[in-house]
Write a structure and sequence with these properties.
single chain; seven-stranded mixed sheet; 18% helix
Length: 862
C-alpha cells in the first residue's frame, strides 16, 4: 500500500529524488523521519481531494516492474504500458477539469499539502549518497504569462489561471524560465546542471521524446535551429534565468521537465527536481519553419485565433450559417486534445507531424456505434445519430459550441457523448485543430454523395408512383445522396506529396473510409489533388473526390425490361452544387453576408467533357477511353449533363422550377414546366411527389403527390403545379425540415423519359437577442425571442446558450408549450467571467421545430 498522494512510491507533486543515476530516474528514497511521514500522511488525509496530478509528471525508475497482465496485453495487442498510459492521461485530465471547476484548494495554506521539496527542508532532510555541497533547486518557474505574450498564447485560460497558470508554448520559438536554487548560486566551474524534458511514457533521446540540455556558461544559442538549445539569459543571486529554444519540428502535447544537478567531482551522484507544472507545446502558424505556417495575417486571425464562427447548413436554395463557439482557448480543450491523441495510439515520436496529428484527431471524433472496438479507450468522443429520437442523449441542434461536448466527454471519464451530426463533428475537429495551433475551418458542400462503392455512381430507383425507393428494390443499396455535408479544412505544407499539393487539406470525421475496423475519419486529403482528380495521392482522396463528382443514375420500374428496371433518358441532378465556408474577417449576426463560396478550391469548373471522362475512368482504375457502362450513346451524353440542344431526338423539354425561400408555416408551390419543341403532337405524363426527409437522404412520411397528362401541339407549353399547405406538412416534418421533391415525365411517342429531384428546406425563424450592458462579475440579463410560425404548439422545448470565453454553456428545459403563432420570449441571467469583445450564441429546439438559433456580439467591461 502506498500513502495517499503517491503511487508506486513516487511523489505526485513537485519535489526531489536522489541517488546515482544516468537514466530517466533512479528511484526514490525519502530520508524522512517517522514523525515527518506521519505528518505528511495526516495532511493528505485531511484535504478534501488529492492534489491535481498532471499526466505522468513524476520521475520513474529506469526499469519499472512489469506485471503479468502487461505481458499478456503485449502478447495479444502489442501495446503494453501505452494502453495504461492513455487511460491515465484521460483520467488525470478529467480530474484536473473537475478541480478547476469545483474543488479549488483551500485558501488556508496550512490545509494544503506541501511539496516534497518543502518537507525536505531542515536538519536531517538530505538523504545520504550525494555530496553535502551539491546544488539543490528550490523551484522552477516557466513564467507562463510573460512567455504567452511572445508566443501569442495569452488567450488560453490555462495560462490565465491565477492560482496555477500552465505554460503553453509554440514550437519554433524560445521561452524563458527561472530556476531558483536553495543554499548557493550556480557555479559552472563547480556544478553540473541539466535540463531534462520528457514526452510520453517511454521517452527516448534518439526518438527526440527525451531532451537533455546541459547548462553551460554560454550566453548565446550554439545549436542548429532544428534542435533544442539552452542558454543563460541572466543570473542574479540564487535566481538563474534560462532561455530554451523549442525546434519547429518538436512533437506537440504535454512535456514535463526534470532538473538534474551534480558536482563536477562526483558527476554520477545526482539529485533530480521535477517541476510541478507540465508545459504544453503546440504548433506555430506564425513560424516560417513550421509545417503549419500561414503567411496571411488576416487568415491566421480568422482560422487560428477566432474562437467563434459559423457552420453552413441547408439546401441549395436556403443555405444558412449556424453560429458556433469553438472555444479553443477554454481550459478543458487543450488537455482534451492531448487525451484524444493518447487514445488514438499515435506514437509520441510522430506527434510533430501535422499530417499524422490531424489524421489521428479526425479518427477520434466519431465513436463507433455499431462495432465496438477492442480497446475501450479508443472509442471516440461523439456518437453519431441521424434520426429524430434523441432519448439518452442531447439533440445535436442544442449544441451551441464545442466546449459543452468536451466537458461532458471529460465528466464521463473520456467516454463518448451523445449525439452529433456531421456538422457538429467538423466544428468539434476545428476546435481541436485550432487549440493545437493549426489553421482550420468547417466547410460545407451542398448535395454530397455517400457510399458509392468506388464506382463514382449513385443508383436511384423510382417506383410506379414517382417516388424514390430507399436503398433500392432489395433495400440493400448503401449509396445515398445527402442534402449537404460538412468536413473540416486544415492548412499545412505537404512535403510528402508532389509540389503544389500544400495548402488546404480536407478532414472528414463523419465518414469511415478506412478498411481496418479500428479507425474512423477521412484525410487529410489535398484540396488541389481532389480538384485535379489525382486520387493516388494522400489519404482517401478518392473518397472525397467521389463525394463531389459522383454521377446519379435513375431507373424506373419497367415490366418489359429483362431485369425489371429501365434507365431514365434525361435527368439533371448535379452533385456538389456549391461549397461554402465563413469568409475571413466577417460575421453577420442577422444574415448570410459572411458566406464565401470556395467551390473552385475543390472542383475544376473549366474541365472539358473528355477530360472529365478521363478522370472518371482513372479514379475507377480503367483506361481513359473505356466505356464502363454499356448504355446507348444518348445516355452517355446525359451522364455528363450536356445542354438540351445536344439531346438529339428528345424534343420535349422538362424543367423543375425550384421553390424559392419559404418560411416554415407558409404554403409551398412546386412547378414542372413542359415544352413541346417539335412540330408534332406529343402526349406527356408527369408526376410531382413530395416527402419529408432527413438531410442524410433518409425518407420520412409521404406528403402529397400530383399527376397530369398533357397533349401538347407543336410548340405548346404547359405546367404541372403542386401546392403544399402548412396543414399538410407541419406535423410531419423531421429533423431539419427538409422536403424531398421528385418530378418525373414520360413522352409516349418517342419513349422519352425525364426525372429530377430537389432538396427543399423551410426557412426557420431567426432568434432575436437583446442584452443589457455587461460587466465582469456582475449579473447580466439577456432576452431571447422568436415567433412560432406554425399553427400547432411547440412541445418538448429546450433552450441552450453560451458566451464564448465569458460564460460557460448551459441547457435549460422550457416548462411550457409555445402556442401557435406566439411570439416566444425567454429571459436568462448570466455572470461574465472575462472582459472583451465576445459573442453570445443561443439555440432552441422542440419536437416540431429544430435549429432555431441566434447570435449577438457583446462588449464586456472589466
Amino acid at each position: 500500500m502506498h500513502p495517499p498522494g503517491t503511487k508506486g512510491g513516487y511523489p505526485s507533486t513537485g519535489g526531489y529524488t536522489t541517488g546515482y543515476s544516468t537514466g530517466y530516474s533512479s528511484g526514490y528514497s525519502s530520508g524522512y523521519s517517522g514523525q515527518q511521514m506521519q505528518q505528511m500522511q495526516q495532511m493528505q488525509q485531511n484535504q478534501q481531494m488529492p492534489p491535481p496530478v498532471p499526466p505522468f509528471s513524476r520521475p520513474r525508475p529506469s526499469y519499472p516492474p512489469k506485471h503479468e497482465h502487461e505481458y499478456e496485453e503485449e502478447r495479444r495487442y502489442g501495446r503494453g504500458r501505452e494502453r495504461y498510459h492513455s487511460r491515465e492521461v484521460a483520467m488525470r485530465a478529467c480530474f484536473d477539469m473537475m478541480r478547476r471547476r469545483y474543488n479549488e484548494m483551500p485558501a488556508d495554506p496550512a490545509q494544503n499539502f506541501p511539496t516534497h521539496s518543502e518537507l525536505g527542508k531542515g536538519k536531517g532532510a538530505h538523504p545520504t549518497g550525494v555530496p553535502a555541497d551539491i546544488l539543490r533547486v528550490d523551484y522552477v518557474d516557466f513564467r507562463p504569462q510573460e512567455n504567452a505574450k511572445d508566443h501569442r498564447t495569452f488567450h488560453y485560460e490555462l495560462v490565465q489561471d491565477h492560482d496555477r497558470p500552465t505554460p503553453v508554448f509554440r514550437r519554433g520559438q524560445a521561452f524563458y524560465m527561472s530556476l531558483v536554487t536553495r543554499e548557493r548560486d550556480f557555479d559552472c566551474t563547480r556544478d553540473n546542471l541539466y535540463l531534462n524534458f520528457y514526452f510520453g511514457p517511454n521517452p527516448s533521446v534518439p526518438k527526440r521524446t527525451r531532451i537533455v540540455l546541459p547548462v553551460t556558461i554560454q550566453k548565446e544559442f550554439s545549436k542548429a535551429p532544428q534542435k533544442w538549445d539552452c542558454r543563460i539569459h541572466a543570473q542574479d543571486s540564487r535566481n538563474l534565468t534560462l532561455q530554451v529554444h523549442i525546434p519547429a519540428t518538436c512533437p506537440v502535447g504535454v512535456w514535463r521537465c526534470v532538473v538534474e544537478t551534480a558536482t563536477r567531482n562526483y558527476p554520477k551522484a545526482r539529485t533530480q527536481y521535477r517541476a510541478p507544472e507540465d508545459m504544453f507545446v503546440i504548433f506555430n502558424p506564425f513560424c516560417r519553419d513550421d509545417a503549419v505556417y500561414m503567411e496571411n495575417d488576416a487568415q491566421r486571425s480568422e482560422f487560428v485565433m477566432n474562437d467563434t464562427g459559423k457552420v453552413y447548413l441547408g439546401g441549395s436554395k436556403n443555405t444558412h450559417g449556424r453560429p458556433w463557439v469553438y472555444g479553443q482557448f477554454d481550459d478543458c480543450v487543450l488537455p482534451a486534445a492531448c487525451v484524444l491523441l493518447e487514445m488514438s495510439r499515435l506514437t509520441h515520436a510522430e506527434r510533430g507531424n501535422p499530417v499524422k496529428v490531424s489524421r489521428a484527431l479526425c479518427a477520434m471524433i466519431q465513436s463507433s456505434r455499431n462495432h465496438r472496438r477492442d480497446y475501450e479507450d479508443t472509442d471516440g468522443m461523439l456518437e453519431p445519430y441521424y434520426e429524430d429520437d434523441h432519448r439518452g442523449g442531447q439533440n445535436p441542434h442544442l449544441w451551441t459550441g464545442s466546449v459543452k461536448i468536451i466537458e461532458e466527454f471529460l465528466w464521463q471519464g473520456a467516454t463518448p457523448v451523445k449525439f452529433g451530426h456531421c456538422w457538429v463533428m467538423s466544428a468539434l475537429l476545428t476546435t481541436f485543430l485550432r487549440t493545437l495551433g493549426m489553421s482550420a475551418r468547417p466547410t460545407t458542400v451542398i448535395t454530397s454523395a455517400h457510399e458509392t462503392q468506388d464506382t463514382l455512381t449513385i443508383d436511384r430507383y423510382v417506383d410506379r408512383f414517382g417516388d424514390i425507393i430507399e436503398r433500392g428494390p432489395g433495400r440493400d443499396q448503401p449509396d445515398a445522396v445527402w442534402a449537404f455535408h460538412t468536413w473540416c479544412d486544415v492548412w499545412m505544407t505537404r512535403p510528402d506529396l508532389p509540389s503544389g499539393y500544400s495548402g488546404w487539406q480536407a478532414l472528414d470525421p463523419a465518414r469511415s473510409y478506412f478498411r481496418d475496423r479500428y479507425s474512423n475519419g477521412c484525410g487529410p486529403s489535398s484540396a488541389e489533388a481532389v480538384k485535379k482528380g489525382d486520387v493516388g495521392y494522400s489519404y482517401e482522396t478518392s473518397a472525397l473526390f467521389s463525394a463531389l463528382n459522383t454521377f446519379v443514375r435513375y431507373f424506373y420500374e419497367d415490366d418489359d425490361s429483362e431485369w425489371g428496371y429501365t434507365h431514365y433518358r434525361q435527368y439533371r441532378f448535379p452533385m456538389c452544387r456549391s461549397i461554402m465556408t465563413k469568409a475571413v474577417g466577417r460575421h453577420d449576426d442577422d444574415g448570410e453576408g459572411d458566406c464565401e463560396d470556395v467551390t473552385k478550391t475543390y472542383k475544376d469548373m473549366e474541365r472539358s467533357e473528355p477530360e472529365r471522362f478521363t478522370v472518371f475512368n482513372a479514379c475507377r482504375g480503367m483506361r481513359k477511353d473505356h466505356v464502363y457502362y454499356d448504355y446507348q450513346n444518348q445516355y452517355l451524353k446525359q451522364l455528363f449533363l450536356l445542354p438540351p440542344q445536344d439531346q438529339g431526338s428528345y424534343d420535349v423539354t422538362f424543367e423543375l422550377v425550384d421553390p424559392q425561400r419559404v418560411a416554415a408555416g407558409q404554403s409551398m408551390t412546386v412547378t414542372l414546366q413542359v415544352h413541346n419543341n417539335s412540330s408534332e403532337t406529343r402526349t406527356v405524363q408527369a408526376t410531382i411527389s413530395t416527402r419529408s426527409a432527413f438531410y442524410t437522404g433518409v425518407m420520412g412520411a409521404h406528403l402529397k403527390r400530383v399527376t397530369g397528362q398533357f397533349t401538347l401541339a407543336g410548340g405548346q407549353r404547359d405546367t404541372l403545379t403542386l401546392r403544399l399547405d402548412a396543414s399538410e406538412y407541419q406535423d410531419r416534418l423531421v429533423d431539419m425540415g427538409f422536403i424531398k421533391v421528385t418530378a418525373s415525365g414520360f413522352v409516349n411517342e418517342n419513349k422519352q423519359s425525364y426525372i429530377d429531384e430537389h432538396d427543399f428546406q423551410f426557412e426557420k425563424p431567426r432568434m432575436s437577442i437583446e442584452v443589457a450592458e455587461c460587466q465582469v462579475g456582475q449579473e447580466c440579463t439577456a432576452t431571447f425571442s422568436f415567433s412560432n410560425p406554425l399553427d400547432v404548439p411547440l412541445t418538448d422545448c429546450f433552450f441552450s446558450m453560451e458566451v464564448g470565453g465569458a460564460c460557460r454553456p448551459r441547457t435549460m428545459r422550457v416548462n411550457r408549450e409555445v402556442r401557435p403563432r406566439e411570439t416566444f420570449t425567454y429571459t436568462q441571467t448570466f455572470v461574465p467571467r472575462r472582459s472583451g469583445d465576445r459573442r453570445l450564441v443561443a439555440a432552441f429546439t422542440s419536437r416540431q421545430l429544430h435549429d432555431i438559433t441566434g447570435s449577438r456580439k457583446l462588449t464586456i467591461r472589466d
